[in-house]
Amino acid sequence: MSPITLSDNEVILSLYAFIFANQHSRAPHIYGLRIPNPYLYVDQVVDRCIFDERLVAILEAAVHIQYLHFPTSIMDPVFDAAMKIPTLRELHAVAEDGRRRLFTRLITLRSPLRSLCIEECDPMGDNISAFTLHKHLAHLAPTLEELDLDFFELDIRPSSITTQFSAVRSLRFRADYISFDFHPMAILLRLFPNLDDTLVLGPFRTMFTDDEFSALRARSEEEQKAHAWPRLDRLVCDAEWAFVYSVQCPIRRMDIRMPRVRGKQYLVDTLRSNAPQYLHLTVGPLTSLTVRGVLDGLFPVEAAERLTHLVIVVQFEVRSKWRAYLKGKRVPWTRLF
């Protein structure tokens, strides 16, 4: 059932009036709410406390609510009421003012949360890390199946991990920095030992030499000799991440981005060692200087036995002087490759 979107103050008042006109028969049918940013209606009223009071009343009356989407800028009474919901299964928080307020309240959350999504509005701010996840949210480990984090710093030594998020099946995050001391695969295998559905890694933005890439990959493969995930239904990442993580378990589908021509050599090695059944490859954007031969030798013979479905999307960067010429024309493949 779709959540109710409380887009502004009028919707809040309307829902409140509707629910409490017959609370016992109507409130139990609220299964999801999207709470607005309080600053959207701060200039519309003299005292916004009335809307906070209405929101708190709705949250307390909705005894079957399972999904909640809200910005961390909501007022304390609303925040506290949200964290007291015992039936909550999915939580989507938009960290507009940092994650500190969110974490101090997530510590008190005792509902059997199944899905947690945290959007970070400030990439340079105080973001989520593996250490804080392990320290502050360990009580969610028994039930949490999906974890979606905009930014996730891998800053904990695998040997210090005492609580594993064994229920997590799907993971999405972006890590702008990795190191040999806090190896990403070693941390993920220890924190999420049973990952078997989806792994989505954000864009690759770390610069390494070829030797450093190879060393990181070798460490990933070594870590998986002791423990590897049983399988992955889907892996989504750049070609460089696929090379570094070198996932050894069977993968049904890979969605690989290759925005840089340099990623070609890494993708070839990935497909040679562990090709998926289904590959969706996005190449580019390419220019006239980088397009030729970009697919030559990309698919090693070792991938032929397993790869059964292939989709290739090639993105082109058209220079301004060519736009008028190309408008409305179909460019032959022979001109591109």
Features:
globular, alpha/beta, twelve-stranded parallel β-sheet, about 325 residues, Benomyl/methotrexate resistance protein
- The residue fraction in helices comes out at 25-40%
* Integer-rounded radius of gyration: 24 Å
Oligomer: single chain
Residue stretches low in confidence (pLDDT < 50, at least 5 long) are none
Overall, the morphology is globular
Explain the overall architecture:
It is a single chain. The protein is an alpha/beta fold. It has a domain of 111 residues. Helices cover 31% and strands 21% of the residues. It has twelve helices and 14 strands. It has a twelve-stranded parallel β-sheet with strand order 1-2-3-4-5-7-9-10-11-12-13-14. The protein has a two-stranded parallel ribbon with strand order 6-8. Helix 8 packs across helix 9.
What is the topological layout?
Elements: E1 4-5, H1 9-21, H2 23-26, E2 32-34, H3 49-61, E3 67-71, H4 76-83, E4 90-95, H5 100-106, E5 115-120, E6 128-129, H6 130-136, E7 146-149, E8 152-153, E9 170-173, H7 184-191, E10 198-201, H8 210-226, E11 232-238, H9 239-245, E12 251-258, H10 263-273, E13 278-286, E14 309-316, H11 320-326, H12 333-336
Parallel strand pairs: 1-2, 2-3, 3-4, 4-5, 5-7, 6-8, 7-9, 9-10, 10-11, 11-12, 12-13, 13-14
Helix pairs in contact: 1-3, 3-4, 7-8, 8-9, 9-10
Q: Care to give the gist of this entry?
A:
It comes from Ganoderma boninense. This protein has 337 residues and is an alpha/beta fold.
